Amino acid sequence: MGRFGSNEQVKVAILTGAGSAFSAGGDLRDMESRLKRDPSGGSGISAASARRIVYNLLDFEKPLIGAVNGHAIGLGATLALLTDIVISSKEAKWGDPHINIGLVPGDGGLAIWTVLIGPNKAKEMMMLGSTISAEFADQLGLINHVVDDDQVMTTASEIALQLCDGPQAALRGTKFQLTTGLNLSLHHYLK
After folding, report:
1. Which of 39, 65, 131, 144 is most buried, taking the most CB atoms under 10 A from its CB?
2. Distance in angstroms (rounded) separating the CA atoms of residues 100 and 126
3. Is the pLDDT of residue 70 over 70?
4. What H or E segment, with its residue span, contains residue 13?
5. How far apart are CA 108 and CA 112, in angstroms?
6. The predicted structure's pLDDT at residue 33
7. Is 63:12 a contact under the CB 8 Å cutoff?
8. Rounded CA gap, 144 and 146, in Å?
């Protein structure tokens, strides 16, 4: 993200997945197997790596659009929710099932879900390890737009073009003001 952030020709970025999933999260069976061998952690991507990815998204000053072309689960959901505008395919599922294998989400998911949908709904989602439809995620205010699968990138690109035509300094300043509290909260949470 740093390379794009410092390139003045890049005005907006779109974060998307390859294939049929945005990011379906880690291999839960592998995480569960690792936890049985080492209950103190060691369950896949390191917490430090996850934090680095999250910090890079938090510190990206330009508008960032999440084009969620499939399931967004666990860290994948966290990453998508850290973008400024989230476009989701109708078929996408959203959730953070860490608790289902005995893990506390340590990637910023607890904080971002709480900020976006409030503590009561976030507690229910996280404590039950629920997975929800894109339509329900939209109703909760978790995401911005739900579109047909083949319209995810088209919609993201249309919004990106609108943002590219806008006053760049004002867009960055607006993003900074809107996300300052979230950034402070997540930076504190991830320490």
Report:
1. 65
2. 9
3. yes
4. strand 13-16
5. 6
6. 55
7. yes
8. 7
Decide if pLDDT at 72 tops 70: yes
Tell me what pLDDT residue 92 has.
96
* Alpha-carbon gap, residue 116 to 141, rounded angstroms: 7
- CA-CA distance, 33 to 27, in Å (whole number)? 10
pLDDT band at 99 (very low <50, low <70, confident <90, very high): very high
**Structure confidence at residue 44 (pLDDT):** 56
- CA 104, 106, 109, 115 torsion-angle sign: positive
Number of neighbouring beta carbons within 10 Å of residue 15: 20
Over residues 176-180, the mean pLDDT reads: 88
The CA distance from 132 to 92, in Å, is 9
Residue 120's pLDDT band (cuts 50, 70, 90):
very high
- Count of the separate structural domains present in the chain: 1
Buried b / exposed e across 57-72, counting CB within 10 Å, b at 16+?
bbebebbbbbbbbbbb
- Alpha-carbon distance of 178 to 158, in angstroms, equals 22
What's the chain's length in residues? 191
Distance of CA 111 to the CA centre of its chain: 11
Return the SS3 of 129.
coil
Domain that holds residue 152: 2-190
The whole-chain average pLDDT of the chain stands at 85
Closest CA to 92 of 14, 25, 45, 160: 25
